[in-house]
């Protein structure tokens, strides 16, 4: 739970961070109290005092000055007012399902999924995971290969997925893929890699992973201009991107999926249009390798400022801004006649709702309950999502969803999530200042 305040009235307790060991410690404490006949509140109070990663909302309250939080107070003496994320110290031996469920029907991802490392050495300033999943930890090659063998024997799946926030940063990736290939290639089992960080490491990956499914390669570019990439702290140069994609074409990849985001600080319309130009250039790059343009699938999402990130203080851009950006992208694609470039856009209204709730406080619990009572269900499914239900819920309690989504927090104010683990505020503010400094260059 990284910003659980909007739903805190609905829960007895939150485990902050990684739950594998923490949940066991918490349950053992509850069992002891149950044997002793303790009341639930007494058990939760004991847990709240014992575990610095356990947040029990009923023991805390906020004082406000208008919209701003004036104080975050423990109502029981001796409780902390700042928590830390639980961390799995022994990631090498942490639990992994060796006999994953094999469904009776075809699932979306029928594969063996193995987390090979946890955390990301990058510091993309919009990314919550890169700042909260610390420190970076790795599983050994021997452990990964053994997990893969046992899971394969139990499932028969024909793909092994090597998962992490940044698989390209696994320090022995070449040796790992080599050992997996040696065992699985004769069994016609492929290796799947997630979205990869593009740099000199990625340029060599297509050569390494000869058993990777070559239908497509996924790359999180995020921004089309190098200036924006410097602002978001994703130091990707165009020359490295083009070198990596050209190498992929030589190695047999025919499709490229790219992730972009719109709404970064100091972004211009020219930056948005450049997304199409970059996609078209990468598609045409395949002509000199194999005689025809590549298929480029570009997924465009709208920046949602996240809690526990340097961009958490930022306002989100308006709905009109995102609608205009989408129009610019579609129009530029038409102008360039980029027939092999396809765009898929994230739902703008859902992104606005995410921004309004994701950085909210306990006052939003009433809004959430009201929306639920009025039919808000399965909102991640497009055919179920009804934005008007949420607009009416906010209005019912005298709030405006757009104003909350576009709220910019002052650097010195108490944030609704700053007590809930995550990096220290000063560290995030240093990154925030560095981003603004880059934007003025």
Please provide a written account of the structure.
This protein is α/β, with parallel strands linked by helices and 441 residues long. Helix content is 41%, strand content 14%. It contains 16 helices and 13 strands. The chain has a four-stranded parallel beta sheet, covered by helices on one side. It has a three-stranded parallel beta sheet with strand order 5-8-9, covered by helices on one side. It has a two-stranded antiparallel ribbon with strand order 1-2. The longest helix has 18 residues, at 19-36. It is globular and about 70 Å long.
Short description:
The chain is α/β, with parallel strands linked by helices. It is 41% helix and 14% strand.
